[in-house]
Amino acid sequence: MTDLAALLTVQELDNTAGALRHRLATLPERRALEEANALVVALTTELAGREAPQRELEREQRRLEDEAEGLRAKADSENRRLYSGAVTAVRELQAIQEEISSLQRRTAQLDEAVLELMMQIEPLVDGVADLRGRLEAAQAAADTATVALAEAEVAVNAELRATLSQRAAAAGEVPAEALARYEALRPQLAPSTVVRLVGSRCEGCPSQMPSVEVDRIRHLEAGLVDCDECGRLVLH
Ligand SMILES: [Zn+2]
């Protein structure tokens, strides 16, 4: 009887372990970490989406600036040729002047286009900087949440280990056959696989046991019997 009573302790500890596992799976810190990670992913995606058009405009700006620089260099060189004294034919000198004017017009157009691009880029840069700041904050929050979850897990895991070691000790006191019956039934009947017979009531049954059943159980040797009504193991 003493041995069998330990089965109730085993069950209680199994229930505690189950509750601790549930707590581990549903720690608020885990939820907080999931939310923080989701925010990091969302902001990363948004940032990539905003950076792409900014980069494209910046590439275009560099391309136009390079082109304008090339044209300016060419205009300078034409200018030097104009005043070098090497060219003396009036027609050729006129042609050089026209070429220089044309290069300058084109350069002015490019400069204007660059300014327009810079005006388009400016608000994008502000938006991207703001997003980067928010992403950094979100990453820091995710790091903090990771630490908080680890700490919460350590605490619950310690409790779980202690419970499992108590369970192992209690299980050692229960006859192997009774423990096997309990473990086979527990998946369906947990957390009240083993119950006591209290007066004429099986603790697991919603109503009174039929007196025939109570009599049957009372006349059995003290021990563990199957309740015909609810299928639980009744300790009496
Ligand atoms: Zn019952």
Detailed description of the structure:
With 236 residues, the chain is mainly alpha-helical. The protein contains five helices and four strands, in the order ααααββαββ. The chain has helices spanning 2-25, 28-82, 90-173, 176-189, 211-219; strands at 194-198, 201-202, 224-226, 233-235. Strands 2-1-4-3 form a four-stranded mixed sheet. Helix 1 (2-25) packs antiparallel against helix 3 and helix 2 runs antiparallel to helix 3. It is rod-shaped, with a radius of gyration of 42 Å. Zinc ion is lined by residues 202, 204-205, 227, 229-230, 232.
Layout: helices, strands, pairs:
Blueprint: H1 2-25, H2 28-82, H3 90-173, H4 176-189, E1 194-198, E2 201-202, H5 211-219, E3 224-226, E4 233-235
Parallel strand pairs: 1-4
Antiparallel strand pairs: 1-2, 3-4
Helix pairs in contact: 1-3, 2-3
Zinc ion binds at residues 202, 204-205, 227, 229-230, 232.
What features would you highlight for this structure?
mainly alpha, 4-stranded mixed β-sheet, 5 helices, 79% helix, 6% strand, binds zinc ion
**Low-confidence segments:** none
> Strand order of the main beta sheet, please?
2-1-4-3
Proportion of residues in helical segments: over 70%
Number of strands: 4
> What is the helix/strand order?
HHHHEEHEE
Give the strand content. 5-15%
Count of helical stretches: 5
Q: What would you say about this model in short?
A:
The chain has 236 residues and is mainly alpha-helical.
